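Recall that a protein's primary structure is simply its ordered list of amino acids. Everything else, from secondary elements to tertiary packing, is in principle encoded there. The following example makes that idea concrete.
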Amino acid sequence: MSNNLNRQNRPQVPKLSEGQLEPLFRRLNLAHTRRIYQDVADRAEKENWSYRDFLALLLAEEVAHRKQTRLQHFTRKAKFPFLKTIDEFDFTLQTTLRQSLLGSYLGPDFVTEGRSLILHGEAGRGKTHLAVAIGYRAIQNGFETLCADAAELIENLSQASKQGQLQETLLTYTRPHVLVIDEIGYLTYGPDAANVLFHVVNHRHLRKRPMIFTTNKPLSQWGKVLHDEDLAAAILDRVLERGRFIHLDGPSGRTRHLKLEEVFPGNSERLRISGINGSEFPEPTFVAKGTLAKTASY
């Protein structure tokens, strides 16, 4: 008697056609599952999968697709000048820098602990490459990155300040988990450069949000570059409290093919440290219109 009641209380299994499943997938935002469902179902029937295995594969495929879509979306949103990874950086050109020195900047702790970094060196030494690679790794670790040219950032904030919109514009540079400020010192800035840059640095420092700077100027010249020695010192004090200064040397990556090092030979031996194993992180699987392609830029 009780068994009959149990059978009667069981919900009826709906018999839905493929056309009836379509709106259900859409309602649950299972776009990828909607595309692959029929092929997976056909394979499951042929290979006699259990219901559990069938469901597990569908869920795994949906999660993987969403992860890949998110990676591509935030990579485009980061506005990198080009896309480079840490595995592509040639550490053999460096006499002192080793990949092991960057280990703490390649994991989630870089973001959660609010670390910062200043990459210094002459043109073509790979400063922007490393900054982009670290910012991209942060995206792979689940965080949002923004890469901004220093001159453009300072000009944007300067104009916003004059128009009484500084606080609104600051959000562009303070909201992302990681901010890359590229090429401090390459161009001439307006007289309020230190003032507007300090707003960005101080806001991020207080909230433990990482910053990465690239520069061709020694730290002692930042006051001259930004037109204010005191504010420049305050900026560097905040950046380096939980940060590190790394100098890049060696020949220019842009003129390496000219073999200028043979004309001006160095004395240091260089050992290859990086790139032994492939990256465990996924890369964008296609290049669509508006998607960044990997280039040879430094």
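The two ends are 78 Å apart (CA to CA). Confidence is low (pLDDT under 50) at residues 266-298.
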